[in-house]
Design goal:
By secondary structure, the protein is mainly alpha-helical. Helix content is 93%, strand content 0%. The chain has one helix and no strands. It has one helix at 2-29. The longest helix is centred in the middle third of the chain and has 28 residues, at 2-29. The chain is rod-shaped. The protein starts with a helix and ends with a helix.
Length: 30
């Protein structure tokens, strides 16, 4: 459980970062 709590924010941050980049790329393309 502790490891999951520590990993959750890590992959979530990475996911949000990737989503943010994808969003910017979509805006740039559009």
């Amino acid at each position: 459980p502790k490891r999951q709590k520590v990993s959750s924010p890590y992959w979530l941050k990475s996911f949000l970062k990737n989503a943010h980049i994808d969003n910017n790329t979509a805006k740039g393309t559009e």
